[in-house]
Specification:
203 residues; mainly alpha; 0% strand; elongated
């Protein structure tokens, strides 16, 4: 059992991190006051559970701060802490997999993503990140499988579509890639910037 006094100090630190990024901020205060009310009423387990949840959110947002600054190695630490406090935290797991991806730790990201996909097979973000990791490891058929699932779940996500097209090209499936690129042009407009990005895919 955690000592509640230590939790109170830790939650206040989490509050300092989280409030600038939480909208509305009132939600955090209400959750904290609810946990305090449970503690005062003697419902220690319920209070502890809410404190842990608040800590996980605080660590998650600290990781997002580091990631926004481009410091992906540093971002991984609080994101790991968030998952330690709340193992089933899909948003934190996605952000941690992104941090690992951006540091070139593709296999480490897959260690997280494989069980996550098994638990949440309809989570497009898990499939997307796993597909990108497989792509970077030159495992193109696995990448295609995940990216096709992500594209089915999020048909208007152009990042998913573009990465899938790249994977198709790597496997010599040019008609499938061209179909995606043409669809992107229809959806986004025939802009020079888009043509440049598509052109780079064929290099």
């Amino acid at each position: 059992r955690f000592k509640l006094t230590m939790f109170l100090h830790a939650v206040f630190l989490a509050l300092l991190v989280w409030l600038p990024f939480q909208s509305p901020q009132e939600r955090f205060r209400q959750r904290f006051e609810s946990a305090e009310a449970q503690r005062r009423a003697g419902n220690v387990d319920k209070a502890e559970s809410e404190y842990v949840s608040l800590l996980a959110d605080g660590y998650h947002n600290l990781g997002r701060v580091y990631a926004a600054q481009g410091n992906h190695r540093e971002a991984a630490r609080p994101l790991e802490a968030a998952l330690k406090h709340r193992p089933d935290f899909p948003e934190a797991l996605v952000d941690l997999s992104i941090a690992l991806f951006n540091t070139g730790s593709f296999k480490e990201a897959l260690v997280l993503l494989d069980p996550a996909v098994a638990l949440h097979p309809e989570n497009a973000a898990f499939h997307h990140m796993r597909g990108k990791c497989h792509f970077m490891l030159n495992e193109f058929e696995k990448a295609i499988a995940d990216l096709e699932t992500a594209a089915r779940l999020t048909p208007h996500d152009h990042d998913v579509a573009y990465t899938l097209a790249l994977a198709y090209l790597k496997r010599g499936k040019k008609p499938a890639a061209l179909e995606i690129f043409n669809r992107m042009i229809v959806q986004l407009g025939n802009r020079p910037q888009l043509r440049i990005v598509i052109g780079r895919a064929y290099r």
